[in-house]
Amino acid sequence: MEIRDFFHGSALNAVDAKGRVSLPAPFRTVIDRRTHRALMPGEFPSSEKFILLGEHERLPCLQAFDPAYSPELHSYVGQRVDGRDDGLDRMSAMDFEQMDVFGAYLQANYDDAGRMVLSPMFRSIAEIEGLAFFLGAGATFQIWNPHKFLEHCQDKPRVVRALEFMLKEKGAKA
User: Fold this and answer.
1) In 3-state terms, what secondary structure has residue 52?
2) pLDDT tens-digit map of 140-161
3) d(CA 88, CA 5)
4) What is the CATH number of the domain that holds 145?
5) Most buried residue, 66, 76, 80, 150, by most Cβ within 10 Å?
6) CA–CA gap between residue 118 and residue 4 (Å, rounded)
7) DSSP-derived 3-state class of residue 57
8) Is the pLDDT assigned to residue 124 strictly greater than 90?
9) How does pLDDT run across 61-93, given as a tens digit for each residue?
10) Residues 25-61: pLDDT tens digits?
11) How far apart are CA 157 and CA 150, in angstroms?
């Protein structure tokens, strides 16, 4: 399936002591559209709403996407394997890469209002405490500790300015 709906924009949402946070409405809209497009003729959408969430491969944040993105991820794994020369046959190399990529993502359910729970493990990995910075990244989106974003992404001044404004609105220090 060709990805035609992308995650744009950003949001800064409160995370409570139990890890409950609201998935931004624009992101839920993208997930819904992509889910409906991925349905086979005659197939009905599941009432279960979820994203796949895992540690970002290169950045100190979480990466998330809807199930419709999984074929794209599988294709990426294949391209990655085809570009390697580690002496493994393609099937073995695919097995190892798929374990690393697909095994790193867990299902995170959310309700109709977008409420979801970031597990203690994921909050620890991304060092997310009282606030979560949701950032559209095209086919996927990221969830950051806002201060970690400011620390690691000063070369993204437009997003930095938006985040600093959101922090100020919430009464938090940038």
Assistant:
1) strand
2) 999 999 999 999 999 999 999 9
3) 36
4) 3.40.1550.20
5) 66
6) 27
7) coil
8) yes
9) 999 999 889 888 888 888 888 877 777 788 888
10) 999 999 999 887 776 666 666 678 999 999 999 999 9
11) 10
Report the pLDDT value the prediction gives residue 79, as an integer from 0 to 100. 85
What pLDDT was estimated at residue 119? 96
**Residue 164 included in any domain:** yes
42: left (phi over 0), alpha (psi -120 to 50) or beta: left
User: d(Cα 97, Cα 2) in Å, to the nearest integer?
Assistant: 22
Torsion angle of the four alpha carbons 37, 40, 43, 46, in this order, in degrees rounded to the nearest 10: -50
Structural element, H or E, at residue 10: strand 10-14
| Count of structural domains, the chain | 1
Cα–Cα distance between 142 and 152 in angstroms, integer? Answer: 14
Question: In 3D, which of 73, 36, 81, 78 has the Cα closest to residue 52?
Answer: 73
Question: Can you state the angle between helices 70-82 and 90-102, rounded to 10 degrees?
Answer: 140
Integer distance in angstroms from the first to the last C-alpha of the chain? 40
Can you name the residues that pair with 110 across neighbouring β-strands?
116
Residue 174 lies in a domain: no
Whole-Å CA distances, 30 to 8, 50, 57, 95:
9, 12, 23, 30
Is 5 inside any structural domain? no
Over residues 116-140, mean pLDDT: 97
